[in-house]
Structure formats: C-alpha cells, structure tokens
From TrEMBL, chain A:
Name this polypeptide is given: NADH-quinone oxidoreductase
PROSITE patterns: 4FE4S_HC3, 4FE4S_MOW_BIS_MGD, COMPLEX1_75K_1, COMPLEX1_75K_2, COMPLEX1_75K_3
The 4Fe-4S His(Cys)3-ligated-type domain, residue ranges: 98-137
Annotated region (Disordered), positions in chain: 14-33
A Pfam family per the record: Fer4_Nqo3
Domain 4Fe-4S Mo/W bis-MGD-type: 237-293
From TrEMBL, chain B:
Family of the protein in this entry: Belongs to the complex I 24 kDa subunit family.
Entry GO MF terms: 2 iron, 2 sulfur cluster binding; metal ion binding; NADH dehydrogenase (ubiquinone) activity; oxidoreductase activity
Binding site for [2Fe-2S] cluster: 128, 133, 170, 174
Pfam families per the UniProt record, alphabetical: 2Fe-2S_thioredx (PF01257)
Organism: Pisolithus tinctorius Marx 270
Record keywords, A-Z: 2Fe-2S, Iron, Iron-sulfur, Metal-binding, NAD, Translocase
CDD domains found in the cross-reference section: TRX_Fd_NuoE
Keyword Iron-sulfur among UniProt keywords: yes
Protein name: Uncharacterized protein
Amino acid composition bias (Polar residues), ranges on this chain: 214-229
Chain intervals for the UniProt region annotation (Disordered): 202-244
Cofactor: [2Fe-2S] cluster
C-alpha cells in the first residue's frame, strides 16, 4: 500500500494553476460549476519512500502518479472536476486516521452490484473494472445476497450511446463531462444511496455534438457505443493513429480496424488540438466509409456510368481534354472538402504544367480569388492557435457557431467561460453555443456598430488585454481587427487551409474564364449550375455523391482512413494521417491517380514516390512538412497582411443581409457523413427531432439566454 | 427493515428455487419521471401571489449569485401549495424561478425523501418504525394504521383519498415512542386504540390534540415523577422570622 508523508517545501515556486483545476474567478457567479481555488506554493511528499515535489493543491492521485505509483481509480479523470465518489483510490496517509488502504474492500462493494456479464459486455477487454478486479479484487465473492443485485432501468440517450445501467458504478464521470465539457446540463444523478442512478429524470436524448466521449469516459460497460455494439473486441482490432477530416480542427484520432473494415474511431490525446475529445461526427461517421463507395473507374456513356479499367478511364480523360478544346485557364480544378494536401499539390502542379491557373474551391464564390489573398498566412488561419484560445478574455464570434463547425473547439471556449471571466459576443444567427454570450446583432450592421465602438460589448473588447475574434470562413471578408493575432479564421473544411497554403486559388484572369474542362477533386458541394453544360467533367473521389453524378469520368480515390497524407488544420498545423485499411476495389491513393494521369496527358509530374512529393511540398511551404507544430506569423507581417485585407475590403459595402450559419445540420456535412447510417439516425433524432418526446422542448434562443 | 419486508412480500411462495436464488429488490420509488395524466409538464403550476412574496423573501436570504441555494425551501413551499406533492411541473417551475437547469432541481427532489413525487391523500400519515419506536410497538401501530384505513400497504393511499401512509425513519421523538406524524403534527405515545381515535378524528375533518395521546405532559416520566416530588418551598420559607 502507498504511504504518503507531506512536508511543505520552501514556498518559493510560483507555479500557476495545475493541470485543469483552473483558477476560479467567478465574476458574476452565474457560472455554475465550482472550481478549485488558485494555489501557489510547492509541496514535497514522500510516496512509497520516493520524494516528489508538486504544486500545492495538486490531487494526491496526481502526486502519486508523479512519483510513479499507479493508483486504481474509477471516478477520477484528469480533465474533469474531482468528485471522489468511487472510493477506489484511497491511500494511507501518515498521521491521518482516515483514508485507509482499502482498495480491495471497495472493489468488493463495487462488484456486489455489478452484473457478471463480461462475456456479453462491449467494454470487455478494455474495462477498468475488469482490469482492476483482476489486479485488486478477490477471486470469489462473499456476497450471497438473496435480495439480488441492484437493477436499474436502461436509458435511451439517442442513436449513439447505448446504456446498460445495471453495470453503472456511479462514478459520475459522464455527468461531469456532460455538465462541464459538453454543456449538456440535463444529465445528472437521481435518487440516493443504493438507488442512485444516472440519467435525465425525464425521457430525453443526450443532444450534444460531443456525446460519444462519455463512452470513452465510462470506466465500465454502462455506456457503450450503439453503432459498434457487439461488432468487435478490442484485442482483434488494429490501431492506427491518424487525423480526422470531418472538420478543420484536425482532431487526433485512432482508427481501429479489423481486416479491411474500419470498426470504430477513437480520440487520441493531443492537448494542443483536441485534448482527448472528438465530436460525434468524427467518431461515428465511419460507417459512411462502407456505403456509396466508388470502387472502379467509371465512364459516362449516354445517361449511365460504365465500369472501366484505369487505362481506359485515364485515356478517356485525355481524349475528353483534347475534344473539349480546353486550353490554359479553360482547364479548371476544384478542390473539395476532403482533398488531401498531397493530391492538391499534385493537381496544382499538373494544371500549371497544362498552362492553367484556374483553381477553384468547393464553396460559394469559390472560383473567385479570395479577398484575404493567400500571401500572408495569418489572413486565413486561426492565429491564436487552439490552446491559445484559452488565454483570450473577450471573444467575438462573427457569423459562426463553433458548436457545429468545430465542436471540440467549442468545448474549449466553454471551459474558458466556466473557469475564467471570459466574455463572449456573437454576431450572426442566434444559436445555442453551450455557454452564455452577448448577442450583438444578426448582420454586418451590428458588426459596423461594434467596430465603431458602440455598445457595452465593444467597450469590454477595447479594455480586454487579449481579445479574440473568430470568423467562420464564409463570413470572413467583412471585418478586420489588428491585435494580438486575435484574428482567427475558423475553417470548417479539412482541406481548405492546405489549399490556401499551397495557393490553390485562381488568378484574377483565370477566375473570369469560362472553363471547358473541369477536374473535381473530392468536390461534392459544387453548384451544378456553375458547371457549363458543354464542359468535360472529371470527378476524383471516394463516394458516389453529388460530384460523381456531374462527371463524365469518375476516378475512385481513397478515403482519409485509406491513405497516408498530410492534413493542415485551421491553425496551419500540418499533421500526418496514416492508412488504416486498404482502399476498396480498384481505388487508389489520390496523388498517385493524378501522377498517373499526368503521364497519360503527356506532362509527367516529377515525383514517383510520396517522399519526393513531400520534398516538393517543402519547396512550396516548409510548414507543410513540419508536422504537429504551428508557426506563428510575426506581428509585423500579420499587421501588414491585415492592412492589405482592409484595403481590399474598403470598397466593399456592408449588406444588410444577416449572416447565416454555414452548417444547418451538424451530422451531415460531407460525402462520408451523408453516406453514414448512424449520422442519418442522428439527423432524425437531433436535427429533425423526430420520435423523441422531449418533456419540455427548448428553443435555441431560450437556451442561450438561460445560460447567460 | 423495510427492505426485508419487501423482500418477504416478493419472495416466490414455492419452495423450489432455480439456478438463481435472488429476486429483485424493489425500490420504494421510481427515480425517473414518467408522463401520466396527473403528472406531466403540460400541467401548469405557478406560485400564488402570497407564495410568490414568500419565495422572493426566501431568495433574498441568499447572495444574488447563489439564488439556486433557495431550491430546497422553494420546493418545499411549492409542494405545500401543490397539495403536498412535487409534480414535474413544480420542479420545472422552481428551476425556471431560480434560473437553474431543471436537472439540478430533479436531483434535489429525488434525493430528499420528504419531497413526494407522487400525489398523496388529504392527510399524510408517517409512522416511525426506527428502533426505539419499534421496541415500543410501532409494528402494531403501523399495522393498525394500515388495517384501519382499509387494508392498505405502506406507501398506499386509502380508497377515499383521505389518507396516505408511509413508514419513515426516526423523527426525533423517541422519548414519546411510538409515534406518527400526521400532516405537520406529531402524535405520540400511541397505542392501537389511540391511533384509531386520531385517524377517525382526521377522517371527520377534525384536528385532534397533538402531542402524547396517553395524557402525560410532553415527555415526562410515564411512571410518574421520581425526583423533585416534594412541594417546592415558597418565598420566605425557612427564613428568619423577620424576613418571613
């Protein structure tokens, strides 16, 4: 058993806050979750005879961890508030008559009510209770209770989280997660003592974009993944560390696959990006990878697609290019949401070789040169960086709903809002953000008033030391503020920052040219009307979605779990994704397809393997191959960039049109999530609200004011 | 105690046991809400103007930012107004009143057993069955109450809707055991006969005298006084004559 001795160290260390305690500066006290107070001095303890020094206020469990002693635990989680209700981690402390070493006793009590259904439990093999029962538990029971084990009714939390409440050990990790991190204040504990149970009291689904994380948090099998139920055991899965592409955050994920199938996706800890959370779309859209896939090259003949070989398809493209008569800027490439950096670079090089400068992005006005330009990085990136967001003291959200565009980022804002006096303002559509905000107005007029310094929020913003403005990409070209790089563009599309980074934008001349040959690279959001009827269209991608239906030739590419490629997130952080499973059928890695096509078109690209391609990427921008770090733009450069942006927009008139949120349905935003059955169920349950008789429906605006 | 009896009631009468020897232990209340005709969020609830004033006064006892500290007194107030039980509408109303998430109110209301989440009869009879009362015969009292009200079980309401009986833990009147609480008053030193008398009085709409039913004064020794039995001396007694 552990023995701890404590003695105060010479109180010199001015270590700020420890881990996630956060300092509690409750301003108006309206924020509901209490946090621990600020602490200063260091303390030296002896754990099992080993001395460690930790900041005052550190949890004993963390101190023991620091000393290399592993403490068994259920309720403690380093990212959640401390509850201390499972009693598993008790240790012996010198001169203290109470917490006594009693792990085994606690284990016995926990097992008294826990069903012995490990063989049919989805948590089996990765269950804390199972592991700790092996380590600390007894091998036979002393309970022969004729009254039986506690039985608790299962809850319906929606299409993502499956409950089996008999297995619950009441650690309340899910409750704390829902209330603190996700901002779902409907989850709690009802009853008392042996009858305590987790739930919402009224029948309700757990409407949160982060709800899947409670599955990871649950130390037992009470909360498990509904889509993954009874599909695989952890020991038969291959784990591949990769990067998510469902939004532009670049969340770090672990793709668990069996054979050629992705079985599930789990978060990977990266404190600089997603901490250890991922959004439900990231976690559950993977079943979309199995449906609607393009597995063989297709050539349109008349009204229907005919399967073809790669040679035939590539030749058909070469013929199409020749017969369309497209020259120079009449050859257009459109970069879609899920295009990886490698293939973007290859495609840009190919088009440049063909004499074209016509690069469009798959978004409204995507074929026009972006107002912010691509010369200064800080004009289109999330400059404060994601962890830097927590330093901001005033945040203005313009035309964005981070809850849908970057759910994990939103939890950071909520964390900051709970633990610091952070003030949030919003211009745009009223939304439920999971934290309170001051509503400034729906349109550019409100923005203009804010810039003019009218209203109390503008005054707060002026007084703030680290103000921050977040724009969603769609609405970014209307306003600038030169400050501590608090100019943050929140991209919502995984490929967009990389496209800007490599200059995948049209020249002025090219943007006005009518294209005769269009190459859609993963472009599935294009407006069909924007494609001239006589143009020859090639679609390269992995799903038979909108883009494929417009094409004359379809080339089957690989999805993000099937290729090892670079992804640049909204901060400009390059991260390397890794292939977990092979691409299905005849589909190939995207950059290889473009390389092969270049050969057929008679302008071979000068790279034969991915390493030489990455050398080329390094030539374009060294940041593309400096993985996992962000590089700050110097303040001078950022300021001059903003100046050009201000000049470019000075003639722009503010329209009275309200900003609209770009995502109306969080669960279906790209070909993968649109093909996903789980996401379709979520859309029904949460976006449409079908079939779930909520006791008291709450409107978004009401919810937002309730928080404030 | 309660659990044991419940178990006894639920035990299968046949002596043959299957592989599992256990049977479900039922809790005495449901800790989730189910919409019913008499209890659903659509039923309106609002404080009366008088209670509204009281509520404001209660809230003013707490710092402005800790308004939610008033949740227990407000639930209590609302329960009184709502015929002695806390419906889902009551909880939602209190949550709205205190600007807190409804779930936080549900947590409080389900934790404290004195918030009745199901309707109760006109008179709420709580019979104490904790050890001192049990030693003094509370088992008989409980049985008397149940039988006298038409053979109902603890937790049940009599057919005429006039009484709800529950078994409770110690009410702190052990020196007058056995005892029961009817509405807001204690009825102590009960015997089956006096119990019936008290219940009959309530059934007639009267309010019997509260306190010990045995005729003794508060919790004086039931065997009569054993100390300080002599007459207390008066002013001037035992003094020198000039001071008498």
């Amino acid at each position: 058993m552990l023995r701890l001795l404590s003695r105060r160290a010479p109180a010199t260390g001015q270590l700020g806050k420890v881990a996630r305690g956060g300092s509690s500066q409750h301003k108006a006290g309206r924020r509901s979750i209490a946090s621990t107070s600020a602490r200063q001095a260091d303390i030296t303890l002896t754990v099992d005879g080993k001395e460690v020094t930790v900041p005052q206020g550190t949890a004993l469990i963390q101190a023991c961890e620091a000393a290399g002693a592993v403490i068994p635990r259920f309720c403690y989680h380093d990212r959640l508030a401390i509850a201390g209700n499972c009693r598993m981690c008790l240790v012996e402390v010198e001169r203290s008559p109470k917490p006594v070493a009693s792990c085994e006793g606690v284990m016995e009590f926990l097992l008294a009510n826990h069903p012995l259904d490990c063989p049919i439990c989805d948590q089996g093999g990765e269950c804390d209770l199972q592991d700790q029962a092996m380590r600390y538990g007894s091998d036979r029971t002393r309970f022969h209770e004729i009254t039986g084990k506690r039985a608790v009714e299962d809850k319906d939390l929606g299409p993502l989280v499956k409950t089996s409440m008999n297995r619950c050990i009441q650690c309340t990790r899910c409750v704390r997660f829902a209330n603190e991190v996700a901002g779902v204040e409907e989850l709690g504990t009802t009853g008392r003592g042996n009858d305590l149970q987790i739930g919402m009291y009224v029948e309700k689904t757990m409407d949160s974009e982060l709800s899947g994380n409670v599955v990871d948090l649950c130390p037992v099998g009470a909360l498990t993944s509904k889509p993954y139920a009874f599909h695989a055991r952890p020991w038969e899965l291959k784990n591949t560390e990769s990067i998510d592409v469902m939004d532009a955050l670049g969340s770090n994920i672990r793709v668990d696959s069996r054979g050629v199938q992705v079985m599930r996706i789990q978060p990977r800890t990266n404190d600089d990006v997603n901490e250890e959370w991922i959004s439900d779309k990231t976690r559950y859209a993977y079943d979309g990878l199995r449906f609607q896939r393009l597995t063989t090259p297709l050539i349109k003949q008349g009204e229907r697609f005919v399967p073809a070989t790669w040679e035939e398809a590539l030749q058909a493209i070469a013929d199409g290019l020749a017969s369309s008569g497209a020259k120079d800027d009449e050859i257009q490439a459109v970069a879609g949401h899920l295009a990886d950096t490698e293939s973007l670079v290859a495609l840009k090089d190919l088009l440049n070789r063909l004499g074209s400068d016509n690069f469009a992005l798959d978004q409204p006005n995507g074929n026009a040169p972006p107002v912010h330009g691509v010369d200064v990085r800080s004009n289109y990136l999330f400059n404060s960086t994601i962890p830097g967001l927590e330093e901001a003291d005033v945040i203005l959200l313009v035309g964005t709903n981070p809850r849908h565009e970057a759910a994990v980022l939103n939890s950071r804002i909520r964390k900051s809002w709970l633990h610091t006096p952070l003030e949030v303002g919003l211009i745009g559509e009223r939304v439920d953000t999971a934290y309170g905000y001051e509503y400034l107005g729906p349109d550019a007029k409100a923005l203009a008033e804010f810039i003019a310094g009218k209203g109390p929020f503008a005054a707060k913003f002026k007084a703030a030391k680290k103000p921050l403005v977040i724009f969603v990409e769609k609405n970014k070209n209307t306003f600038v503020t030169p400050d501590w790089n608090g100019f943050c563009v929140l991209h919502r599309v995984a490929s967009r920052p990389a496209a800007y980074e490599i200059g995948f934008v049209p020249s002025k001349k090219a943007s006005t040219t009518k294209p005769k040959f269009i190459y859609l690279l993963n472009a599935d959001e294009v407006d069909p009307k924007s494609i001239p009827s006589d143009a020859f269209v090639v679609y390269q991608g992995h799903h038979g979605d909108l883009g494929a239906s417009l094409a004359d030739v379809c080339l089957p590419g690989a999805a993000y779990t099937e290729k090892s490629t670079t992804w640049v997130n909204t901060e400009g952080r390059a991260q390397l994704g890794r292939a977990a499973v092979p691409p299905p059928g005849a589909s190939r890695e995207d950059w290889k397809i473009i390389r092969a096509l270049s050969e057929v078109l008679g302008t071979p690209l000068p790279y034969d393997d991915v390493l030489t391609l990455r050398d080329r990427m390094w030539e374009i921008s060294p940041t593309l191959v400096r993985y996992d770090v962000t590089e700050r733009t110097s303040a001078d450069l950022a300021l001059s960039g903003l100046k050009t942006l201000a000049e470019a927009t000075s003639t722009a008139k503010a329209t009275g049109k309200p900003f609209t949120k770009p995502i109306s349905n969080f669960y279906q935003t790209d070909p993968i999530s649109r093909a996903s059955v789980t996401m379709a169920q979520c859309t029904r349950a949460f976006a449409v609200g079908e079939n779930y008789g909520f006791s008291e429906p709450k409107t978004a605006s009401e919810a937002a004011t309730a928080h404030a | 105690m309660r659990f044991l009896r419940r178990f006894a009631a639920a035990r299968p009468s046949s002596t043959v046991r299957g592989i599992s020897t256990s049977c479900p232990r039922l809790s005495d209340a449901l800790f989730v809400h189910r919409d019913t005709e008499y209890n659903n969020p659509k039923i309106p609830f609002e404080f009366t103007s008088e209670n509204l004033r009281t509520a404001e006064e209660i809230i003013s006892r707490y710092p402005q930012q800790y308004k939610k500290a008033a949740v227990i007194p407000l639930l209590h107030l609302a329960q009184r107004q709502n015929k002695g039980w806390t419906s889902i509408s009551v909880m939602n109303y209190v949550a709205k009143f205190l600007e807190m998430p409804p779930m936080r109110v549900y947590e409080v209301a389900t934790f404290y057993t004195m918030f009745n989440r199901e309707p109760i009869g006109e008179n709420f009879v709580q019979v104490c069955t904790t050890t001192p009362c049990m030693l003094r015969g509370s088992t008989d009292i409980l049985r008397t109450v149940c039988d006298h009200l038409g053979g109902i079980k603890p937790g049940g309401t009599s057919k005429d809707g006039k009484f709800t009986v529950i078994e409770v833990e110690c009410q702190g009147a052990c020196s007058n055991a056995p005892m029961m609480v009817v509405n807001d008053d204690f009825y102590e030193d009960l015997t089956p006969e006096t119990t019936k008398k008290v219940l009959d009085a309530f059934a007639k709409g009267e309010k019997p005298r509260r306190g010990p039913q045995s005729g003794r004064q508060t919790s004086e020794n039931s065997a009569g006084l054993t100390a300080l039995t002599s007459k207390p001396y008066g002013p001037g007694e035992f003094c020198l004559p000039e001071f008498q």
